[in-house]
Amino acid sequence: MKILAISGSARRKSTNLALLIQIKSIVPEGVSMNISHEIDSLPIFSPDKEEQQTPKNVTDFIDNVSNSDGIIIASPEYVRAIPGGLKNAIDWLVSREAIIAKPIILVHASHRGDDMLASLRLVLSTVSSRFNRDIFARFPLMSKTPDEIRKILTSPEAQKELFMLINDFTNYIDKSDA
Fold first, then answer.
1. How many Cβ atoms from other residues are within 10 Å of residue 163's Cβ?
2. For residue 10, what pLDDT band results from cuts at 50, 70 and 90?
3. Statement: the pTM of the whole predicted model exceeds 0.85
4. Rounded CA separation 160/170 (Å)
5. Nearest Cα to 106, choosing from 172, 58, 13, 10?
6. DSSP letters of 136-151?
7. Residue 65: exposed, middle, or buried by beta-carbon count in 10 A (0-12, 13-18, 19+)?
8. Which residues are bridge partners to 33 per DSSP?
9. Cβ atoms within 10 A of the Cβ of 97, count?
10. Which one, of 129, 130, 66, 64, lies nearest residue 98 by Cα?
11. Residue 58's closest CA among 40, 38, 36, 43?
């Protein structure tokens, strides 16, 4: 099983990326997880750049989505909204088959961000028939140092929650494939 994890943050040391890295470290045998954290490199979506005009980094991103069995998205909130880079990445997928029936879940690395999460849930439930809003985990990592993040995410409580998240998601993907 192949999982693609997408960080909605353009920061190289973002808490959302740290959360995805921790999830990757605990995926069970038989599951691989790749992390896409360079969505800021995608050009602004334009229908004029689709088909043969699609930039290579966009086709690579779309191929990664297509070749995954499921997607985990972790995103910060920017001014109570979805970050532009993440929304742009989703826009590149809208007119293609890659995301339509893809199992997708969210994780969140902050104690706040409910407006962004509500908006992202609406967008994802529009673009994928298999977006699952019930499989979700949230950790208060905002403004934490790397050491504090590591301590929080490796605590027994966090590890249990992350194991349950991955287990629930892989079971959901298996049911989606049946």
1. 14
2. confident
3. yes
4. 15
5. 172
6. EEE---TT--HHHHHH
7. buried
8. 3
9. 11
10. 66
11. 43
